[in-house]
Amino acid sequence: MIVSDVWKEMGILDACLADDLVEPMFDFWRSQTDNERLAKKGIAGYLQYRKRDVAAQLLLALQRFSQGIHLSKDELESTAAVEVLFSYHISVVNDVTSWDKERRAEREIDAQGSVVSNIVQVLSDDCGLSPENAKSVLWAMCEEWSKMVDAFIAKRVEEGCSDSLRKYLDGLKMQMCGNELWSRTTFRYNSSGLV
């Protein structure tokens, strides 16, 4: 009932942008019970799976809704590549910063049938790296993705883009930065306050 009420109120504010949330929301909900969660994956497969699991498209649709950003179909399609980088970045930042907590929980709970689903483990297994070395490699990957996003935005601005598209791209970058800062400093993942 609460979700329905919120959806109706969002539709009153902006029916078009509220409708853009429907598919990403249901895709995220489906991903939470998908058997794919338990399947062993390589790095590329894991990143593909996490695009749904981390709700990247939902986060971006919520950004457009909250900022009142209306993009044309062509504008939205033109951002597909940078949205992939966004999903990789937020997924990997989340995984790297939550790794130690997840490992502690796995040891303490020792739940039957539980599977740690984290790219640190995937990279360790695929490349024979220790978890600490895998985390270092993953931080470097995040830095490169961040630079690629910056380059994409700069190119779009240089080529000329609408104010709405520029606002959307700037917001996407701010979400990445905010997620990294929060993930590095939240007590949810680390009691020291910094990773």
How would you characterize this protein structure?
With 195 residues, this protein is mostly helical. It has a single domain (2-185), classed as Farnesyl Diphosphate Synthase. The chain contains 10 helices and no strands. It is globular.
Give a quick precis of the structure.
It is built from 10 helices and no strands. It is an all-alpha fold. α7 (80-109) packs antiparallel against α9 (131-159) and α7 runs parallel beside α10 (163-185).
Characterize the quaternary organization of these chains: single chain
Domain module tally: 1
Please give the number of β-strands.
0
Helix and strand sequence: HHHHHHHHHH
**Mean of residue pLDDT?**
88
SS content category: mainly alpha
CATH architecture: Orthogonal Bundle
Q: Stretches where pLDDT falls below 50 for ≥5 residues? A: none
Strand content: under 5%
Name the CATH superfamily classification: Farnesyl Diphosphate Synthase
Taken from the alpha-carbon principal axes, the silhouette is globular
Radius of gyration: 18 Å
Question: What is the CATH class designation?
Answer: Mainly Alpha
What's the CATH topology name?
Answer: Farnesyl Diphosphate Synthase
Task: Report helical residue fraction.
Answer: over 70%
Number of helices: 10
| N-C termini distance | 39 Å
Biggest pleated-sheet summary:
none
